[in-house]
Amino acid sequence: MVLWITVITVLVWILVPATPLSVYHECLPQGKWSRRWEGSHVEMTVWLTEGVMTDPEQSLLTFIMEPIGSSRPYNYDALYINRHQVKMVRVRNGHPDKSELSLSQPLPVGWAAFNLSSTSLTELWLLPHTKLVSLTTDMTIASLEIEGSNITVGCHHNVFGWKVSEGRAVTVPLPRRHRHYLSTYSNTASQPRLTLGNTTLQLGWDGSTLVDVTQYDNKYQRPLPAATEHHLVISCNSSYVEAVICNIEVNMI
């Protein structure tokens, strides 16, 4: 799903029903995440895109770990995870040592949760119960960089938010065969466009609720009121030929 907004700041959420519209900074998905390493582990959620099925060698998720007192290109550990394999690179004093590990089961398509820990071992788990990597640790991690699709780290609130600004589109991944709760919010009046497949909705306001302006010959040109939650439900199912059919409705929560 692609969302276009023509005003400065809009946040978009996929929510569970009847959840207040609030989002935490750690629940804003991003393509690259980097921080100083703190504690013994990090938990993250990542979107494992379906498109990579056509190129099984393409990395879905990358981890770069740099040690205290050094950094790339001289000393670091890297994990490159694709659908069927983990490629491990350990660089010490500029000399790389590479290895590969085949996964017993291919990674799933859609949202997936991972846990990366580093104590006496560096371990990567596909949650809840699948260990992907276990390496002997010979360095103390100073920083961690993660690269993938729609990464969140430490988000435990079951609500993701995407910020849309300056008339640019943001793509919100939606699993098939699910009911999705989508909300928009802006500090100023807004006129968002929502594209799902080949269909684009221009959202407007009829004085009491959301409407698709294009269904009314552009009769309702009023923007959505500012500082107000506007809710939609997107229900998707796959037919017997694997075509995905989605219905979009106004949600009056």
Record the SSE blueprint.
Elements: E1 2-4, E2 10-15, E3 30-36, E4 41-48, E5 61-67, E6 76-81, E7 85-92, E8 95-102, E9 110-118, E10 121-126, E11 130-136, E12 141-153, E13 160-164, E14 169-171, E15 179-186, E16 193-196, E17 199-205, E18 210-212, E19 230-238, E20 244-250
Antiparallel strand pairs: 1-14, 1-16, 2-13, 2-15, 3-12, 4-9, 4-12, 5-6, 5-12, 6-7, 7-8, 9-10, 10-11, 15-19, 16-17, 17-18, 19-20
Q: Regarding CATH, which class of the largest domain?
A: Mainly Beta
Q: Kindly, what is the distance between the CA atoms of the first and last residues, rounded to a whole number of angstroms?
A: 22 Å
The secondary structure category is mainly beta
Inertia-based shape: elongated
Count of separate DSSP helical elements: 0
Major beta sheet summary: 10 strands, antiparallel
Number of strands: 20
Overall CATH architecture of the largest domain: Sandwich
**How large is the radius of gyration?**
21 Å
State the share of residues found in helices, binned by percent.
under 10%
Q: Unreliable stretches, pLDDT < 50, 5 or more residues? A: 4-20
Under CATH, the topology of the largest domain is which?
A: Jelly Rolls
Strand content: over 45%
* Topology as a string of helices (H) and strands (E): EEEEEEEEEEEEEEEEEEEE
Number of domains: 2
Mean pLDDT: 83
